[in-house]
Design goal:
It is a single chain. The protein has 926 residues and is α+β, with helices and mostly antiparallel strands. 32% of the residues lie in helices and 18% in strands. The protein has 28 helices and 34 strands. The strands form eleven sheets. Strands 6-7-8-9-17-13-12-11-15 form a nine-stranded antiparallel sheet. Strands 1-2-3-10-16-14 form a six-stranded antiparallel sheet, with no helix packed on it. It has a three-stranded antiparallel sheet with strand order 20-23-24. Helix 10 runs parallel beside helix 12. The longest helix has 22 residues. It starts with 9 loop residues before the first helix and ends in a 20-residue tail after the last helix. The N terminus and C terminus are likely disordered.
Length: 926
């Protein structure tokens, strides 16, 4: 039985209906990519150069093999039928059908989209969505952007679209694209064009409907069709999907062609048919009237609107894509639109903490909108792809040099949360785990499904490895899936809808993955772990995914800390499963043993020169183990040395009584390994914390004080906008290591990278990154739950101001959130010195969630639409908008989340609508 007052929220009812009754409210959504060209999937080159093999210039003329892209578009959940907007300002050399950006070799800091677009709103079922694209009225400076950026060095700023002057005098269009579902398969589309310039300007708008080409690859020869059914009506027929119609208000000209490659333009070879993919470009811009099919049939169609938009005015286009024939498609159009928009407002008002002010709510909602817009249908059949490359390891064993050959078992064909649909239009496993935290605020079911997806046999490698990303599925990401799984399970349980099958299903897959880590990434069997770059790209002295120039091996403080953290999460999961099957007590003991040996291996109190803990410095470092057996610490103060802090988990006082068999095994372990236990943590009463809690942590209280001394020092890690990835100490004191007459150097770089390591398009040598900051906040709250108010540290270090660990966590979160919020002068640090974004009323409240942020001034850097894990800011704002120190201390761990979710809807009046927060959970109490 649902809690009173919840099921009457329409968006929540749609989520419940989708889960419980199978009503396909999520069938249609923003599942198009922003960039399909330049991806590994579309790369059939000999040298694996995906960027050059399929370029932006080719994309308008060349049919894609594995997916589609478009501007502000949608598709069904298998990306068969697609809809997006195309534009032409009558000055550009090409039709604007997709976003433009620089390839990795063209940008002075790697690939980079050079457009301004914003995900403004979305509900979790996509019953209402809003998108904005800013289109210049002057000719788009394609060549200028490429040539100027290519000429700049890595030490120079990037040359942005605003720098070209194309937006001067506000001569541009704001193109708003809104979607509202009047039914699961009845989608209203409203395109509103605002002319921000002083004079009337013309704009061609082409709402475009097309089928993904599935018929040209010898898989299924059945071909769908689009045809003009009546003036302003396009009928779509598909052998699996059935019939749809696109109704176009105002009687526009209808254009038709085929989604087929223009081989004549690309390779001077005959095309397979006379009407090809770039026909609308040729029709409008080249004036070739014969480019489109006069019979008004094809697999790609557009409604051609020619608008005259007055200066300061606006014009609206209305369309309706529906699976049901409509007699009066626009009769109740505006009413339905306003109803869905009002329902979106109601949904977000109910799930947003009451304590947030208007600007915080704006940042919170746009972050969640970006998360929801960043869903994408991802299709990749590795067996077929390798076969097409003649490199299938079983069918063509002679093939070599093609990436991902060992992943031939993979078949990915799902809607997945992407890091950034232009710069990273492919899933990344550890990013995805972080995504689920913020997604759980609005769509719990989708968040949970995303975690299980990576553990399915069609993704997961038979050896237990979780796939990393398409450029190299065998790369190693930090093992954070267990933590995310545990979080989602606890949140759902707090709502009275415990799902042990989800937990056990995930646990079994994670057990295989854990064993893969132990077998593959601990080569010496010493419980110290490598792992390669582990998501931190250029953070190390050497490229951590390549052979070391010194020979030997690198024992990584972060890799080992990640495994300790993994052990803790798996231990918690095993203890929960004990409630359903006592055999899991012995499984839990396995993870206690692993954890104990890992913790022991990390420092042994720093007695020797080859441990990661340096007693003199009071910090953790990577250890370089040389071929001759000698070892040395690489004394770089980086996030690598802070991550051991994150392996901190508390257990409640009643654990000993609840798990007697486990206590017997622990007692036996202590008896057999007294030297290990004495090194791990203080024994006896001092090991018991607030409320009788027990602490599992890689660092003792004394070490914690020393590590926090660095973390909270504003001359080291603590920046004005969060915790830096590298200590500012290295700005004036770079770390150097000489090998064979060459110096390998690490220096504090608060902005972009100055090397080409990992493509040069990200930087872990100084900027602030949201995911690791989130883990630090988790650790501080856990440690506060153990130490309580009696343990205080200076924050900032040397300030004379002492704070509890809760207050420290809240201060770090405040700094992180202030990156996006207006300061006292009305400026948002995320936009740095860009005046347009800081001052213009049509720009200043449009929030971009960048990949990482300047370590000193908070300016956004890297991918500009990585709402993915930067969307964590919504989760952080949400969490700290609800909790206080008393909540952390006095609420038992089992009921903390229950109280939290009850407060998430109605503030202090708990008991009213927790299901809204964890969307899809309607039976909160029984």
């Amino acid at each position: 039985m649902a809690i009173k007052g919840v099921v009457d929220v329409p968006e929540q009812k749609r989520l419940n209906d989708a889960r419980e009754a199978g009503i396909p409210w999520k069938k249609w959504g923003p599942y198009l990519s922003e960039r399909q060209w330049g991806t590994v999937r579309e790369d059939y080159s000999q040298d694996g150069n995906a960027w050059d093999y399929f370029s932006h210039d080719q994309s308008r003329s060349r049919a894609y093999r594995w997916g589609e892209d478009g501007l502000g578009g949608i598709s069904d959940d298998k990306q068969r039928l697609c809809f997006a907007v195309a534009l032409w300002n009558e000055r550009d050399p090409i039709l604007k059908e997709r976003l433009f950006g620089l390839t990795n070799s063209e940008g002075n800091h790697g690939e980079d989209v050079k457009e301004y677009y914003f995900y403004l709103d979305s509900t979790p079922t996509h019953s209402y969505m809003k998108y904005l694209y800013k289109y210049p009225q002057r000719e788009f400076p394609y060549r200028d952007l490429v040539e100027t950026n290519r000429a700049r060095s890595r030490e120079d700023f990037e040359y942005e679209l605003l720098d070209t002057g194309v937006f001067d005098d506000d001569r541009y269009f704001d193109v708003f694209v809104e979607y509202a579902k009047d039914g699961p398969e009845d989608i209203l589309v409203r395109i509103t064009v605002h002319n921000r310039g002083p004079e009337t300007a013309r704009l061609r708008v082409l709402p475009t409907l097309w089928y993904r080409n599935t018929w040209s690859w010898r898989l299924d020869g059945r071909k769908p069709s689009l045809r003009a059914e009546a003036p302003g009506v396009i009928q779509a027929s598909h052998h699996e999907m059935g019939e749809y119609r696109l109704y176009c208000d105002g009687g526009p000209e209808l254009l038709f062609t085929e989604n087929e490659t223009n081989s004549q333009r690309l390779w001077a070879q005959p095309s397979s048919c006379p009407y090809v993919k770039d026909a609308f470009h040729n029709h409008l811009i080249s004036g070739d009237r014969g480019a489109v099919n006069p019979g008004q049939v094809g697999t790609k169609a557009a409604a051609h609107y020619s608008l005259e938009v007055p200066g300061g005015g606006n014009t609206t286009i209305r369309l309706r894509l529906t699976g049901v024939a409509a007699q009066a498609p626009f009769g109740s159009f505006e009413m339905a639109f306003e109803r869905r928009r009002a329902e979106a407002d109601e949904f977000y008002n109910r799930i947003t903490p009451q304590a947030l002010n208007e600007d915080q709510r704006r940042v919170h909602r746009q972050a969640l909108a970006g998360m929801l817009w960043s869903k994408q249908f991802y299709y990749f059949d590795l067996e077929r792809w390798l076969d097409e490359h003649k490199s299938h390891p079983l069918l063509q064993p002679g093939g070599s040099g093609v990436r991902n050959m060992e992943w031939f078992h993979m078949l990915n064909a799902d809607v997945i949360s992407m890091p950034d649909k232009w710069e990273y239009p492919w899933y990344a496993a550890w990013d995805l785990a972080f995504h689920t935290l913020s997604l759980s605020l609005v769509d719990f079911d989708f968040a949970k499904d995303q975690l299980l997806l990576m553990l399915r046999s069609l993704y997961f490698h038979p050896n237990g490895q979780i796939p990393a990303y398409e450029w190299n599925f065998s790369d190693v990401n930090p093992p954070v899936h267990a933590w995310a799984t545990l979080f989602l399970y606890k949140m759902e349980s707090a709502l009275g809808r415990s799902d042990p099958r989800f937990l056990e299903r995930a646990f079994q897959g994670l057990m295989l993955n854990f064993n893969w880590w132990v077998n593959r990434k601990d080569p010496s069997g010493r419980n110290v772990f490598a792992g390669g770059f582990l998501g931190l790209d250029n953070i190390g002295v050497f490229d951590r995914s390549a052979q070391l120039p010194t020979g030997g091996s690198l024992e990584q403080a972060d890799g080992t800390a990640w495994m300790a953290f993994y052990c803790q999460c798996m231990l918690e999961m095993a203890l929960i499963l004990c409630e359903h099957d006592p055999m899991y007590e012995e499984v839990a003991f396995k993870f206690i043993q692993h954890y104990a040996w890992i913790a022991y291996a990390m420092d042994r109190i720093g007695e020797h020169h080859d441990e990661m803990w340096d007693e003199q410095d009071g910090f953790f470092y990577d250890v370089l183990r040389l071929p001759d057996g000698n070892a040395t610490r690489l004394k770089v103060r980086s996030m690598v040395g802070l991550l051991p802090l994150c392996a901190s988990t508390t257990f409640e006082a009643d654990a000993e009584k609840r798990y007697p068999k486990l206590m017997e095994l622990i007692a036996l372990f202590k008896e057999r390994h007294p030297e290990l236990i004495s090194h791990l943590a203080p024994s006896g009463q001092s090991f018991v914390g607030y409320g009788g809690r027990r602490l599992f942590s890689l660092i003792t209280k004394a070490k914690l004080e020393r590590v926090l001394g660095y973390l909270l020092d504003e001359k080291e890690f603590l920046g004005p906008y969060g915790v830096r990835s590298l200590s500012r100490f290295h700005q004036d004191h770079p770390f150097g290591f000489w090998v064979g007459g060459e110096e390998y150097k690490v220096q504090y770089l608060p902005a972009e990278s100055n090397t080409g390591m990992f493509g040069g398009n990200s930087n872990w040598r100084g900027p602030v990154w949201m995911p690791v900051n989130a883990l630090i906040l988790r650790a501080l709250l856990n440690l506060y739950g153990f130490f309580g108010d009696d343990f205080k540290v200076q924050c900032p270090t040397g300030s004379g101001q002492y704070m509890t660990l809760f207050e420290v966590a809240k201060e770090i979160q405040r700094r992180l959130a202030s990156t996006f919020l207006r300061d006292a002068s009305g400026r948002r640090p995320v936009y740095g010195g860009t005046r347009k974004f800081q001052e213009d009323p049509n720009w200043r409240d449009l929030i971009l969630y960048y990949e990482y942020f300047h370590g000193d001034n908070g300016a956004g850097l890297g991918a500009s639409h990585q709402t993915g894990w930067t969307g964590l800011i919504a989760f952080m704002i949400d969490l700290f908008g609800r909790i206080d120190a008393k909540w952390v201390l006095d609420t038992s761990r089992g009921s903390r989340q229950t109280q939290l979710v009850r407060e998430q809807v109605g503030g202090k009046g708990a008991g009213e609508a927790p299901e809204l927060v964890v969307a899809g959970v309607n039976e909160a109490t029984k």
